[in-house]
Design brief:
With about 120 residues, the chain is mostly beta strands. Helix content is about 10%, strand content about 50%. The chain is globular, with a radius of gyration of 14 Å.
Length: about 120
């Protein structure tokens, strides 16, 4: 039986994201899923575990535009040997209050939090 080590529930959430690390801008990654503690980005060129960088996700609905910005650390790398999607798991190291609220609402709306459950 597989034991789940996650601290927070993750939800499927496909959106474009940028991750800048080591002075390189890596644009147009596709976020596969997201939680209150991290997310998974699809990429053919994952960075090494432990790499620090800055994440930016722009969410827009009509004329409204919200951003999630966070300092993140690469916590997991998936490649050909895994048999799963190529990419990297990012763990939030630092998340500003506005981004935290936006993220909370995304996860809740996608069904990752029960009514009345608080992850903030």
């Amino acid at each position: 039986m597989k034991t789940e080590k996650r601290r927070h529930p993750r939800v499927d959430f496909a959106v474009q994201a940028s991750f800048e690390a080591e002075g390189l801008v890596r644009m147009d990654h596709r976020c596969e899923n997201i939680s209150m503690s991290g997310l998974f980005l699809r990429t053919d060129a994952p960075l090494p575990v432990g790499t620090l960088g800055n994440l930016k996700i722009v969410l827009s609905c009509g004329e409204d535009r919200l951003e999630v910005r966070a300092e993140c650390k690469v916590s997991r790398v998936m490649g050909a040997a895994s048999g799963k999607a190529f990419g990297m798991g990012l763990e939030y190291v630092s998340l500003d209050p506005d981004s935290s609220i936006t993220l909370y609402n995304v996860v809740k709306y996608q069904g990752g939090l029960d009514q009345g459950e608080s992850e903030l």
